[in-house]
Each structure stands twice: as structure tokens, then as C-alpha cells.
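Much of what follows relies on a compact textual record of a protein's fold. A record is reproduced here so that you can trace the correspondence yourselves:

. . .
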Amino acid sequence: MSVRSGLMALLAEGEKYGAQLRCEFEARTGGTWPLNVGQVYTTLDRLARDGLVEVAGEADAEGRIAYRLTSAGHAELGTWWTTPVDRTNTPRDELTIKLALAVTAHDVDVQRVAQTQRTATLRHLHDLTRLKRESLGRTEGAAEGRSRPDAVARVAHLAAPRAAADNGLAWLLVLEHLIFAAEAEVRWLDHVETMLARRPARSARTPPGAGDADQRAPARSTASDSTRSTSTFATRHEPVVVSSTDPGGDHP
């Protein structure tokens, strides 16, 4: 997610200072993309330079400066809401790059790289599923509490404003996106292992100079075989001399 657009979306709700923007950004995204205050103020300075935000007034007693969205900022934010995310500029994915390079390397066990990553992704998927189960449990518990007519439930309902429920839904959306992405990665890794299994076996690398020796050895072997073949041929076709004392022989 664009930090620039995310901060503008928060400022559209009202004036906020840097640390407040950081806390609200992380609360709504479940801390999936943590920000530091320095990054927030750097982005705010750039937005102010572009005329999209402005300082709301003097610093408060604690030295905090609040910002607000300008009319130009509201217009750009409206465009961001209605414009689909550009998927043609594919971000670099470390796993994809790693496996692509491993396939072309001669000294890397690609199968092991894929299997190791698959194990780690399954573990991550298990953790995400547990978090989702816990999140849904909290949501169902809150709904059950609101249905009880006792005084404790009414107080709890008043203490949990609509914004908190919306933040819970926002976190659940982010969590499910991460789950779907992990599931897709496992399926892709399964496909990678299938492709690797079907790949022809990689031939062993020939040591330097071994090729010349291999070419010379057959030549010597061929010459030796030729000599043995000629000798055998001469032996088998040597003319037979019939002795005159042979009882079955004819005299000249």
C-alpha cells in the first residue's frame, strides 16, 4: 500500500499529527506494514511541498504539529479511491528471484530450496489461520455480549464504538489477504517441485582438461584394436600347407 495515499486517507477524516497518523495506520492494517515516525514526517513534508496537505496551526503544548488535507489533496485522494491498483509494474519478489537463479546455478539443490520454503510458508499459514480464528472469536464474543441485556454488556457496548468494530474488520480483511497469498504460494511451490521432477537430469560438470584426455584415450584404443584385428584376420586367413606325408594328401 502507498504510504502517501494511506496518510492522505487518514487526514481526510480530520487534522492529525505525525505520531497519531502512525498509530492509526498500524491499527487499521493490523501492524502488517509498520511505520516509523521519521517516515511519516518525511512523507508529510513531501505532501506539503506538493500542495496536498498543510499545517493546521501552531504546535501544541507538547510541540506536536497537526496537518490537514487541502482541496487538491481531497481531489487526488478521490482519484486514488476510484483508480484500480496498477498490476503491470510487478514488484520484485525475493522468492521468485531466488528460485529463478537457483535453477540456473550448477551447485544449488533447487529441490531443497523449494521444499524448505514450502515448509516455512506452511508454518506461516498456520500462524495466520490461528490469528484469524482468534479474531473471529473476539468478534463473536463481542456480538454475544451485545445481545445480553445485563448492565455489564450495556457498558461494554458503550465502551466499544463503531470505529473499533471497523478496525477489527479492516484487520480481518488484511489477514485474509495474507492467508490467500500464503495458500497461493504453497500451490505455486508444489507446481515448482513438479516441474523440477520432470526436468531432465543435469549432466555432471567435466573437469578442465578431462575432455582432451578422453579424446586421446579412444584414439589409442582404436589403434590397438586395429592391430589386434589385423593380426586376427591374418591368422584366420593364413594359407594351409598340406604335408606330402599326409595320408590323405595328393602328391604334386
Q: What stands out?
A: Residues 94-198 form one domain. Residues 170 and 195 are 38 Å apart (CA to CA). Residues 145-160, 219-224, 226-252 have pLDDT under 50 and may be disordered. The radius of gyration is 39 Å.
